[in-house]
Design a protein that fits this description.
Number of strands: 9
Radius of gyration: 16 Å
Shape: globular
Bound molecules: iron/sulfur cluster
Structural class: alpha+beta
Order of helices and strands: HEEHHHEEHEEEEE
Distance between the termini: 13 Å
Helix content: 10-25%
Amino acid sequence: MTARQCASCTLCCKVLGIAALEKPIGAWCPHCRPGAGCAIYDDRPRECRGFICGWLRDERLGEEWYPKKSKIVLTYEQDRFVAHVDPGAPGAWKEEPYFSALHRMMLANLPAGKPVYVAIGRQHILLLPDRQQDLGLLDESDEVELAAVERPAGREYRVTIHRGVRAARPAP
Ligand code: SF4
Ligand code: SF4
């Protein structure tokens, strides 16, 4: 953890889904006062209490990654990284310095089995060394299987989606 503070950022209250509130991904939580905070702070669900975004936890990410500025909430999960993009600025991840930084994050972590996704609402895009693969709309229960195939020209990745097979993810 770092000494960083959320201050007037409330973007995670928009981009993330909150199961306890049946709050969908990509829509403002009805309890959020954007730019001000949570109207039910003392009674907010456990998912909210435990949440720490990537920018708060990782001081290697510069100030340009402050979610209110970048329009991207990074989550570091057990088996993946996700760049949750504000649906109001869906192209933010393609801008610099974000695109290059996400690409470097993918190159550094994919060989160890931790892929990097971009999520714009339920639309998920998987970053791969040779492409950005649009996976369409995914739910929490969908599992993405990645298989590395060694070719003379180098390693390729095959992607298979298994629908409805996954248990709920722990909060990042
Ligand atoms: S996205 Fe990060 S900085 Fe912004 S409110 Fe959520 S936890 Fe705080
Ligand atoms: S309950 Fe509060 S902390 Fe949780 S998503 Fe809603 S506004 Fe944010």
